[in-house]
Automatic annotation (TrEMBL):
Keywords: Cytoplasm. Its main location: cytoplasm. GO terms for biological process: regulation of cell shape. Belongs to the gluconeogenesis factor family. It holds the Pfam family CofD. The lineage of its organism: Bacteria, Bacillati, Actinomycetota, Actinomycetes, Mycobacteriales. Required for morphogenesis under gluconeogenic growth conditions. This is Putative gluconeogenesis factor. It is found in: Cytoplasm.
Length: 319
C-alpha cells in the first residue's frame, strides 16, 4: 500500500494503513513546507524540509498509540522544544532527520535509519530529494476580484485570504525520487489525500513522472476526499470543486475510486454532479462513513483510522 500526501491528512491515512497491511506500507511525502521548524532547517541547512516526513514516521512508529496515548517513539519524534532560545519550536524528529542527513549526505538513508530506530512498520520516502516551492495564482487579494496575483510558499498558499485558482511547483516538473516511483509501481493500493489540497495533495501531481507511474500501476487507485473545505486555500470549495481542481491540475491522471464521507449533506443533484466530476478522472464515487466523532458522538472534521481502513479494504476486496 502506497499513500501519497503530507501533514495531518497523510498522518491519518497512515494510521488507517497500519490496520490494512502493516507489513507493506510506503508513505510518499511532499517536500514543499517552508514554515516553522521545517522552514528554518531548509533555509539554514539547504535540506528538504523534514516536518511532513517526520509526521509520517511518527504515524508508522512501532510502538503505536494505545488508550494511554502515543507510543514513546512517536511522542519523541513529535516533541517540540519550548523556551525562547535557538531550539524553541524545533521538533526532535526534524533535528534527528537533519542530523542524519548531514552525517550521511542522503535523505533516504536518514529516513530509513529513523524508521529502524523507531521500529517503523513501513517506509517513508520523499516525492523528490530536493526542496520544492509552491507558487499559486490567487484572486481576491485586490479590490478588483478579477485581478490574479502570485503567492509563493506553502505557508502563504495555505493561509491566503484570497481564492486559489491553480498552483505550480518551482522548479517545474522536478525529478521524482526513484524510491517513490518504485513504491507506486509496486503497490496493490494507492491513496491520494486527504489533506491540504493545494499544498499537500496537488503538488504530487505536478511531478509528471508520478502521474505516469500512478497511471501505469495495476493498483487500485483511491482519492480520499477531504471531509470539508479548509480555511484559507480551499475556503468555500464544494466537494465537487475539489475534484474539478484535481482534474484541472493533472488532466492526465486516472484513478479508480473517490472516497466521500457518507455523512456529507448532499442532495441527489449534488451527488450526480459529484459523479460527473469524478468521471473526468475515470473514477467512481464511493460513499462510506469515514469521519471520527468526539466523546459525545459529535462528528469531527478528521478521518477515523478504523473507518477509513474498513472502507479501503472493502474497496480492495471488491475490486
Amino acid at each position: 500500500m502506497t499513500c501519497l500526501g503530507g501533514g495531518h491528512g497523510l498522518y491519518q491515512t497512515l494510521r488507517a494503513a497500519r490496520l490494512c497491511d502493516p507489513a507493506n506500507i510506503t508513505a510518499v511525502v511532499t517536500v514543499a513546507d517552508d514554515g516553522g521548524s521545517s522552514g528554518r532547517i531548509r533555509r539554514e541547512l539547504g535540506q528538504v524540509p523534514p516536518g511532513d516526513l517526520r509526521m509520517a514516521l511518527a504515524a508508522l512508529a512501532g510502538d503505536r498509540e494505545d488508550a494511554e496515548g502515543p507510543g514513546l517513539s512517536a511522542e519523541l519524534l513529535q516533541h517540540r522544544f519550548g523556551g525562547h532560545g535557538a531550539l524553541a519550536g524545533h521538533a526532535v524528529g526534524n533535528l534527528l532527520i537533519s542530523g542524519l542527513v548531514e552525517l550521511g549526505g542522503d535523505v533516504q538513508k536518514a529516513l530509513d535509519t529513523v524508521a529502524s530506530l523507531t521500529h517503523s512498520c513501513g517506509r517513508v520516502v520523499p516525492v523528490c530529494t530536493r526542496p520544492l516551492d509552491i507558487a499559486a495564482e490567487v484572486a481576491g487579494l485586490d479590490d478588483d476580484p478579477r485581478v490574479v496575483r502570485e503567492v509563493r510558499g506553502q505557508v502563504a498558499v495555505a493561509s491566503t485570504p484570497g481564492s486559489v485558482r491553480r498552483v505550480r511547483l518551482v522548479p517545474s516538473d522536478p525529478p521524482a525520487s526513484s524510491q517513490a516511483l518504485a513504491a507506486i509501481r509496486g503497490a496493490d493500493l494507492i491513496t491520494l489525500g486527504p489533506g491540504s489540497w493545494f499544498s499537500s495533495v496537488i503538488p504530487h501531481l505536478m511531478v509528471h513522472s508520478v502521474v505516469d507511474a500512478i497511471n501505469a500501476s495495476d493498483a487500485l487507485k483511491v482519492v480520499v476526499l477531504n471531509l470539508s473545505a479548509e480555511p484559507g486555500e480551499t475556503q468555500g470549495f464544494s466537494l465537487e470543486r475539489h475534484i474539478h481542481i484535481m482534474a484541472q491540475q493533472a488532466p492526465a491522471l486516472r484513478v479508480d475510486r473517490i472516497l466521500v464521507d457518507s455523512d456529507s449533506l448532499l442532495s441527489k443533484a449534488e451527488r450526480a454532479y459529484l459523479s460527473r466530476a469524478a468521471g473526468r478522472l475515470g473514477a467512481e464515487i464511493v460513499f462510506a462513513d469515514v469521519h471520527s466523532c468526539d466523546e459525545n458522538g459529535m462528528p469531527r472534521n478528521v478521518h477515523d483510522p478504523e473507518k477509513l481502513a474498513a472502507a479501503l479494504t472493502g474497496m480492495l476486496a471488491a475490486d
